[in-house]
Task: inverse folding
């Protein structure tokens, strides 16, 4: 595998994790949104990633591996939270307000995981750069 392919794999991981962090930030920003344009509360979004080198294990790890891509951004279909607050403008006749299905602990955990994966891709990028520089020094 040449250095440019290694750099592209790390770069695709960086792009994917950045997008994942954007979606998590959007979820956190809308954690209290009870009314959207679609009507009803905000529904949590999740990022679906797939490898770009689809094939068997050897093919994915071999020269044909090209990294990762965002396949889709899907909505979480889990039920909304019901909170009793009859004075809220979005409360139903029973006094309950439907809150988004966003869990703060889950989102913060996902953000920390995305951050660690982002850092791992940066470390791989730096290692590839150092190997390329050492290979150039050998040729002197």
Result:
């Amino acid at each position: 595998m040449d250095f440019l392919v290694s750099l592209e794999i790390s770069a695709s991981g960086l792009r994917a994790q950045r997008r994942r962090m954007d979606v998590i930030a959007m979820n956190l920003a809308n954690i209290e949104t009870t009314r959207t344009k679609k009507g009803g509360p905000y529904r949590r979004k999740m990022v679906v990633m797939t490898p770009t080198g689809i094939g068997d294990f050897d093919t994915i790890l071999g020269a044909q591996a090209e990294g990762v891509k965002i396949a889709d951004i899907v909505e979480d279909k889990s039920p909304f939270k019901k909170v009793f607050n009859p004075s809220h403008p979005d409360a139903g006749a029973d006094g309950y307000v439907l809150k988004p299905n966003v869990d703060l602990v889950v989102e913060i955990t996902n953000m920390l995981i995305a951050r660690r994966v982002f850092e791992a891709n940066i470390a791989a990028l730096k290692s590839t750069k150092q190997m390329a520089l050492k290979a150039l020094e050998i040729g002197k």
User: Anything to note?
Assistant: The CA atoms of residues 115 and 127 lie 18 Å apart.
